Amino acid sequence: MLWPAPALCEEWLASGPLSDGRLGCVSYRSNGSWVFGTACVDDREQGMRQAAQRAYADVFQVLDREGCPQLQRLWNYMRAINAEEAGLERYRRFNLGRAQAFLDAGRGLEDGAPAACAMGTAQGPLTVHFLAGRHSPLAIENPRQVSAYRYPQRYGPRSPTFSRAALADLGEGVHVLFISGTASIVGHESVHLGDVVRQAGECLDNIDAVLAAALPHVGGPWTLAALRERLECTVYLRHPEDLAAVREVISGRLGVGTPAAEAAVYLQADVCRAELLVEIEAQVRLAPQEAS
User: Fold this and answer.
1) Domain ranges in the chain?
2) Which of 24, 90, 180, 226 is the most buried (most CB within 10 A)?
């Protein structure tokens, strides 16, 4: 963690009695309507493609068991994400395994895919955190970008399986917009190579575009400014020395001293493309009584 200095613990709360479970490589907790869990696979034993396929296959079995088949949000973490493994980048091998698990489970690879991120760590097993529920989220795409699942083959033999955002219905009029890891990409091309300040600004431009695309679907008198004020951002930096510069960009765009800027969490991680220096993921909780 780069900022804030004290260690943080993120908590996900649910109503009603909870049950713990384990299946294969997955540990999880469920209240009957929602499942939150983690899959861990040591990819050193079998390679990234097979590890990803196993992790997702076990996740899908858990969702079927618990009657919560609809993935809402995924967080994928893997060591050496940009390194080569048997002639192919490890992230691209991950995409192969993930896609195969989706296909084996009879799930589509395109429209309706969940929100997700994929980040590189220094060490540790392939780790997949997931949130799933009974009802399908509404997938949101960014008009400034080609949908990730439709990337051309120059980015690997299988495109990534995620949507730019997913709007989840929590019931009683409350929604959460999960915004996938968002980088300095326009169309399908990485832009502002070598310039972390401009890349950070492009990330925020893309997040604004996702918020605007989601706005017609959230209901109530929400405005783009109100959504932006409620952003809860996690910022991943490839190089820790870029922290001050990127914090300045985010404070300038979200407002110095605003809750959105002050609550942002900054972590060191590698981004899924080697030329990208920063990635931002976010979420926005939307309750009718909070609309302004």
Assistant:
1) 16-136, 138-292
2) 180
